[in-house]
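Protein in question reproduced for absentees:

***
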Amino acid sequence: MKPIQVGLLGIGVVGAGTFNVLKRNQEEIQRRAGRGIEITMVADLDVARAQSIVGAGVQVVNDARAIIANPDIDIVIELIGGYGIAKTLVLEAIAAGKHVVTANKALLAVHGTEIFAAASAKGVMVAFEAAVAGGIPIIKALREGLTANRIQWIAGIINGTTNFILSEMRDKGLDFAVVLKEAQRLGYAEADPTFDIEGVDAAHKVTLMSAIAFGIPVQFDKAYVEGITKLGAADIKYAEQLGYRIKLLGITKRREANAAKGYSAGIELRVHPSLIPSKRLIANVEGAMNAVVVNGDAVGNTLYYGKGAGSEPTASAVIADLVDITRLHTADPLNRVPHLAFQPGSMSDLPILPMGDVVTSYYLRLRVADEAGVLAKVTGILASADISIDAVLQREADEVGGEGATQTDVIILTHDCQEARMNHAMALMQALPTVLQPIVRIRKEELA
């Protein structure tokens, strides 16, 4: 059978990895796919560099539309990135009847609803395993492997840069700014690391997982996003003493309605630093590695771990999508796995809950004057807001500021409460004259 022909838009790090792995493992891949898969055309602005990567047997052009217009190309791989020209080219490829494989989580998190609708109308596939957690097959697990389950929640370390920074902060006792510079020097962080350290990259990924898990449209604009830039070495140290580790988590949860507590049904969609019990496997994921925990009603907790970025790990996911499309190339579109796991006419209208409605527990650190009655006032405010305290740790003043210090840290762990109540209580505590610095608040996830 004639090999399926693939056009590649952008041959950077992941594109080169995809070409090399596909070429190296061609025989194995063909045995699995049932026919050969060949990248026969590449579009890149740097034609000479691209040609040096792919060799003489592949046509290289500087115009991506030449690939889309080529009737021999069956699948288009988009590895350009971003929201701009990538969106235009993906929609044009779909309109031309091409299947699309993309690693572009930003594009799908923001414009996925439009793109998937266009693909469904045209009867083509948009595959995006490489868009979330690199080489970890989490999209396939959610869409197919766990299809019997009612997914309850997902929590993931899905950004390697921030996990590397937090691991270094914990191991070396250094503050964020110092470790960021080292991460940039080592190549773990970009020159402009904003998308990573502010949580945006993780939010793109958890938005896609949420849509697949709960059968809702992609709604990145409704995600709560908080990065790691305000974390200090002191909080990582205190968390360790309390039996926790701090990780940047992408979290999405199903919440049932509870009339007694005044909770409405909806979906939580959030990214922020979280305390996780040290005994959890995901708390021990270090360096630039990724991990995702999925909780389903039938299977319980399942953990997916591996490299979340890099040339060949991401290429592994891109090629897995190529194989899937090759196998289903001639199948009736109605018999294919839906883009977001649920049939398009069966999507849910469950709302994304505003952050004030989210229920979780908290770590609070207050820098306070070292004098009598301070703790009583703080705990009194929490009690008046109906916030139950799980544990309190008060440091000796000389541990915090040295001998003769007049300030100390009070660390409080709470039980679950609604975020809006915590916001109100924090405002009252911050107004106390004995609270000397902005209160540090980190959410806590037991992931039991």
